Amino acid sequence: MSRRQFLSGGALLGSSFILRGTGFADQVENVEDLKPGDFTWHPDRSPSGPITIVVSVPEQLVFVYRNGIRIAVSTCSTGKAGHDTPTGVFTILQKDRDHHSSLYDDASMPNTERLTWSGVALHAGGLPGYPSSHGCVHLPLRFSSLLFGITTVGTAVIIAGQHDEPVDVGDSGMVLSNVAAEEADAAAASAEPHGADAAAPTEEKSISIVISSADKRAIVLEDGETVAEGAVTIDAPDTPLGSYTYILSRTASSGGALLWHAIGYNRDSTTGETAEKTLYRIHPDADVVKAMQARMVQGAILVTTDLPLHPDSRSGKDFVVMDTAPSA
Fold first, then answer.
1. Cα(97)–Cα(149) distance, integer angstroms
2. Residues forming a β-bridge with 65
3. CA–CA separation, 122 vs 137, rounded Å?
4. Where does the record place the catalytic residues (predicted)?
5. How does pLDDT run across 267-321, given as a tens digit for each residue?
C-alpha cells in the first residue's frame, strides 16, 4: 500500500421492521432476511446523539448507529469491478437533495451525501443485489431520504470489508490518555449552544483528529483545515494501533459525561489491542491536547491508523482516511 493511498481528506435488530418500497413488512430476526431495496428504520431506539454510518462492502449493507446504538440497516450497492468503492473512514463533505451527476449524463442522484471531492457519495440508486455502481454507494430512495434527514456535514462514514459493533470507551473519566473528560467538558458545553442534549442536526464545525503510529504524529482538523499538528508518544510502539474510529458522545442521562463510541474496521482482531487500550496508549503533545480540549463536541471523531500521514494525497476540505485507493 502506498503513502498516497492514505490521507486525502445492533444488538437490537431482533425486533426490526423491514421496509419494502414505502410500506412496512413483517418483523424479521436477521439482516440476512433483507432483500434488495429493503431496509429497517428505528430512530426511536436512540432519539439523539451523533450518527455513524458503516457500509459493509462484502454484505452490501449499510448500518446506521446513533449514540452507539444501531437504529437502521439497509441494503445497498457499491462499486462494480473496475469502479470499486474505496474503503476507509470518510466524513460527509456536502449534502444535496436534488443532485445531478456531472460525469454520467446529468443522471439524477437524489439525496446525495458527498464523501470525496472526486465523486464518491451516498445517494439513491439502483439495487440489483450486488455491486453495480461507478464507485458510489447506492441506497433505496426512501432510506436515502430518511438518512439525509438525520446526518450533518462531518458525520463519520466507514466503508469497510469488516467492522466491529460499537463499544463504549471512557468509563475511566478520560477521553485520551492525558485528556480528562471533565477538563474537556467545559469546552464542550461552551461549544454546544443548544445544550448537551440537543437532538436536532446542526451545521456546527466538523472536528476530526487523526493519529498515525507510523509517523507518531497527530493532526486536528476543523472543517477539513488543519488547526493543530504535533508529535504523539505511543506506549508499546511496536504494537500496531489498528484501525479504529472513535465518535465523541455523551451518556444518556441529562448533561451526561463525555465518552467515545469506538468502531474497529478492516483490522486483525487477533493481533491488535482493544479499542479502550488503544486509546489510552496515545499521549499527544501539549499543543495538540490543547486544540483537542477546545473542540471536544458531540460528533467529533478520532481515527487511529498504522499508515503514514501524507499531505500530498490530501487536498481542499476533504477528510478521507483510506486503506484502498479509488479506482481510476
1. 10
2. 52, 70
3. 5
4. 123 (proton donor/acceptor), 136 (nucleophile)
5. 776 666 788 888 888 999 989 988 888 888 888 899 998 888 765 444 345 556 6
Active-site option among 136, 138, 163, 261: 136
The CA distance from 68 to 86, in Å, is 24
Strands 258-264 and 17-20: unpaired
Instruction: At 15, give phi and psi (nearest 5°).
Output: -110, 20
Q: Where are the domains of the chain?
A: 3-160, 167-322
Cell 463519520 found at: 156
Q: Do the domains 3-160 and 167-322 sit in the same CATH topology, yes or no?
A: yes
167-322: CATH class:
mainly beta
Please tell me the chain's helix, strand, coil percentages from 3-state DSSP, rounded to the nearest 5.
Answer: 15, 40, 50
For residue 21, is it left (φ>0), alpha (ψ between -120 and 50) or beta? left
pLDDT in tens, 127-142: 999 999 989 999 999 9
For cell 486525502, name the residue: 8
According to DSSP, the β-strands at 282-284 and 225-234 are antiparallel
Whether 123 sits among the annotated catalytic residues: the reply is yes
Which tens digits make up the pLDDT trace of 87-125?
888 889 899 998 777 666 667 889 999 998 888 999 999
**195-212: average pLDDT:** 63
Distance, in Å, from the CA atom of 152 to the CA atom of 144, rounded to the nearest integer, reads: 14
Q: Which residue has the cell 476530526?
A: 208
pLDDT at 248: 87
Q: What is the dihedral of CA 162, 94, 71, 243, to 10 degrees?
A: 30
Q: Is 42 tagged catalytic?
A: no
pLDDT in tens, 146-165: 999 999 988 999 998 888 88
- Topology adopted by domain 3-160: L,D-transpeptidase catalytic domain-like (2.40.440)
Please give the model's pTM, rounded to 2 decimal places: 0.79
For 193, residues 6+ apart whose C-beta sits below 8 A from its C-beta are none
Provide the 3-class DSSP secondary structure of residue 20.
strand
